[in-house]
Amino acid sequence: MTIEDIVSILDARVLCGEDKLSLVVMSACCSDLMSDVLAFVNEKTVLLTGLTNMHVLRTAEILDLKCLIFTRGKVPSDEIIERARQMNLVVLTANKTMFTCAGLLYDGGLRGAAMTWNEETEEEK
């Protein structure tokens, strides 16, 4: 799926990165807990979040994310958008809940970021 497809599916507004809408993405992650994103995402992906602070950009930078989608119609500050532009990130805002955005993207063919489970053995219980 391209980021342009995401814009269409979510009826999203592009805040920066208009020249990168042809990038292909393979998975998505939804979270407002950046520690969870850092712990479970290990591939280049799209992040859906309702947070609009600098921690989101730091997380995106560490994980080399391609696109940030701010849900619930949230728009980050000009400072955040400018920093995202410098990082070559595509930033979108969608006027839908995170749950709805995830469902629409899943229905469109985008899957969740791969995740491994740490299963306890009988001895560890």
Fold and architecture overview:
The protein is an alpha/beta fold. It has one domain (3-112): Udp-n-acetylmuramoylalanyl-d-glutamate--2,6- Diaminopimelate Ligase, Chain: A, domain 1. Helices cover 35% and strands 18% of the residues. The protein contains five helices and six strands, in the order H-E-E-H-E-H-E-H-E-H-E. A six-stranded mixed sheet has the order 1-5-4-3-2-6. The chain is globular.
Protein traits:
125 residues; alpha/beta; Udp-n-acetylmuramoylalanyl-d-glutamate--2,6- Diaminopimelate Ligase, Chain: A, domain 1; 6-stranded mixed β-sheet; 5 helices
Instruction: Quote the beta fraction.
Output: 15-25%
Helix content: 25-40%
Q: DSSP helix count?
A: 5
Main sheet record: 6 strands, mixed
Order of helices and strands: HEEHEHEHEHE
Which CATH architecture?
A: 3-Layer(aba) Sandwich
Query: Which spans of ≥5 residues are poorly predicted at pLDDT below 50?
Result: none
Average per-residue pLDDT, rounded, comes to 86
List the helices and strands and how they pair.
Layout: H1 3-10, E1 13-16, E2 27-30, H2 34-40, E3 46-49, H3 54-63, E4 67-70, H4 78-86, E5 90-93, H5 98-107, E6 111-112
Parallel strand pairs: 2-3, 2-6, 3-4, 4-5
Antiparallel strand pairs: 1-5
